[in-house]
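Researcher: For the annotation table, I need structure tokens for Protein transport protein Sec24-like CEF. Please keep the output clean. Sequence:
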Amino acid sequence: MAPPSGPPGVTPSMIRAPPSQLGQTPLPGSPLSNAPPYIAPPPGRPMGAPAPYMANPNPNPNPNPVSQPPQAGPPAAAAQPNPVMGLAASLQNSMIGTPASQSFASRPFPSTAQRPVSVPFSGSLNQNPLGSKGSGPFPGQPASQPYPGPPALASQPVRGPPQLFPGQIVGQPPMGQPPMGQPPMGQPPMGQLHMGQPQMGLGPMGPPSMAAPPMGAPPMGSAAAPFSGSAWQGQQRQGGMLAPVRMAPAGMGQQSMVSTPGAVMGYSPHAGAQVGTPSKIDPNQIPRPVPSSNSSVVYFETRQGSVVSPPPPATSDFIVRDTGNCSPRLMRCTMNQIPCNGEILTQSCMPLALMVQPFALPHPSEEPIQLVDFGEMGPVRCVRCKAYINPFMRFIDQGRRFVCNLCGFCNDTPRDYICNLGPDMRRRDADERPELCRGTVEFVATKEFMVREPMPAVYFFLVDVSMNAVGTGATAAACSAISQAISDIPEGPQTMVGIATFDSTIHFYNLKRSQQQPVMLIVPDVEDVYTPLQTDLIVPLGECREALEQLLESIPSMYQTNKIADSAFGAAIKAGFLALKPTGGKLLVFQSVLPSLGIGSLSSREAEGRTNVSNADKEPHKLLQPADKTLKTMAVEFAEYQVCIDVFLMTQTYVDIASISVVPSTTGGQIYYYYPFSAVSDPAKLYNDLRWNLSRPQGFEAVMRVRCSQGLQVQEYSGNFCKRVPTDIDLPAIDSDKTIMVTFKHDDKFQEGAECGFQCAILYTTVHGQRRIRVMNLSLPCTTVLGNLFRSADLDSQFSCFLKKAANGIPTTPLTQVREQIVNHCINILGSYRKFCASISSSGQLILPEALKLLPLYTLALIKSVGLRNDGRLDDRSYWASHVASISASLAVPLVYPRLISIHDLTSMEEGDSVLPAPVALSSEYLSDEGVFLLENGEDALIYVGGMVNPEILQKLFGSPSLEGVPSQLVLQQFDNDLSKKFNEVINEIRRQRCSYLRLRLCKKGEPSGMCFHSYMVEDKAPGSLSYVEFLVHVHRQIQIQTKSN
Ligand SMILES: [Zn+2]
């Protein structure tokens, strides 16, 4: 519980620290420290007392400036001595591999395509980032698989039509070597068929195919092994991670097969009709994420010369070395080879999109992003398309000219930047210059990129003090959280804060030091809002810390007897905005009831929703659209002035999240949702959420653009931002948790063997007031072979696309249709593979591309998720949609397919195992009545207690031999026994991994809470929905129909 003080100088061995300390310690010069350790603050910690857990003391994403590129030297060598040695061992103990997926191997490919990009980035960057108003008004303030189970094939005798093995999945290619730790991609050794040569009639016990490349073998067709042992000490080859990707004849690649009964007719996916003989599929043999019992971390080099290795799964543990392409944490493509033309892409039915998470937390052992300062001349850019210099620009003519990898233009090299070429035709200084050898760098922005001085870090808090807010304890919780979190804010000279409260009117407080007591200034007009003061509403934190703490302590009692039930939310955020308008900044709103008064007030649409929401065929989805455009219009104006709004909803009623969420989503913020709010259990989460909000790596007043090689063009951006011009997105704030999805379409063709480049540039201001341009590059090989697309498909990214598209569809399309679209999308992808790539044509088998074999499972989980099931509350669904809009690829899968682990037997885990036990499949079959289980999706953690749990276990975990009286909204305590201690360790490790505090709920068998828990058992059959086995049969059937009709 001691704050891991974060003195620099942390060594990798720190990773052995208890979970509570993990990630606390930013590496010296590390771009960002690790995820925060989330620990419950002692409930009732007195306000103003020092926070028990230090916030990341170094949120500055770029603390390791390299002032002169030439001196950069071997990147980070000094800052991070020996980053690899000893890591693997310690990481093994502390990191858990997450379930899901597998990866692939590398393949070679060469380069370049061209395309003129019309609007130069600098064009808009040169514009006032504030829009037209930036300078004027504010002078002074300038501006996988083994199928988890053992190969239990023998248990299911061969029978039924198709003579292949019913009930069996044949993984392809067989991978002999058992996976090390990580999601084994390998198939069970028995019953495998070699892909290209199905041996019909070979019994399930048949020997593994000889022809199959052994798992650990280097990828075929590529000159270099993707992970060369010499480069990465301690690195483990992962069985599954290196599935050979061979440039084999189309379609002969990796695939999985699930035999399904041939005669399954006339059955509808949602009607829950009887499936023919699903029992012929052995549930132990269907694709599931592979738990890794003894997790190990994967080392990933983004490129090996001309070889691009597909990244490890987003959900796995890995350490990246940037060798030309950016880290997959920052940009991850739905496919790791790019289709040469639109026809192949269309044929594949797969989405082509990038998941961009520009401030994603690096692994603590990764090298920091290098800062490059070109001085007054600014970063070298392509004259035509304004792309930034990057490792894929090709120098020619003795270094005097360079060819842009995006548009193909041949540029003159600036005189000061000329350097001779070596025999390899690279610049002789290429390895010393980060911008020429790293996929991600940051450039110091020159004056050209500023229309005003970079803005200070400004935080303005708005607290609901209406009757309900005070009565439920929400006001007190908010004040306490703010008070504690403020002590964690890095107090730069430029850090400013302000505060206001509101009910039917708005109350500002003058925090100026000269005032003995903060003076309250009331703004009664909630239709035409103004601010009472031009100055002094926002003051440097150093000047008002004490006054602010006192004020926060007194606010709950000041309004203790408040009888005003109305809440002028819209007016309050407008007023807060006016206070922030001169500088821009973050507005953090703590709201408890439906906004009922003044500008942007809302009516309770829930009553209408309640009668309709259970019937998905009517139009309840319209209730998931904003009530009107008022808040959206306001939000666009906020964004223009660089004001980002986060809304903390602590409520026990409907608050119309559909309407409220447009404010954060337009301004780069987010919604936090505490429902039903509990004054007992939620304050700890609120504090941790707020603290992470303030201390996580982030940037302000950002503008982002993605460029790509000629042949492709950006189709659409999706996420939390404001868009005023077609090419750029405006982000008043951007932080490490936010992901922006960028979709692409072809506008031309690529040559086979060419590379397609992607470059994301984000201009932003650091929390310390420095203007920077973070540039991330990804260059991927192009292919005309459909099989290569499937082989290089990225499951996590593709599923993220599914998820985001579903969320986008929710407000405009009836739920049944959204579900159908998602299922059809899945079927079309798998159907395309079946039709064009699969090597076995037996109709009795469902053949899945290896890389996407979990797609059906995740699709099923998605249509059963909170967002897409019929029985959800309106606000729950709206919250889900808004949460999903900016979710990262690494959290997308767990949100929908949560992690389930058993708790009652934690003490039987051996020393040296990872903190977390291997996850269990989401099926009731795995829940024993004597067991206690934990299910977590990154947001919520449900603790399920079976009906016959040993009272001793209950006593150890909950401090009582029976659950009577133990509230469902649990406050986790640690008791003096091993089981309790391990349970707490597990929870804290999950919090750390997810960067989320998690809401704990107790679910008891036989009670509604238990039913709620069971709704997450996505493999189960439920009323109106299919079991996993049934779903596979359905998918298979649809593919058969598709295939026949063609
Ligand atoms: Zn160019």
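Researcher: And a one-line annotation?
Model: DSSP finds 23 helices and 34 strands in the chain.
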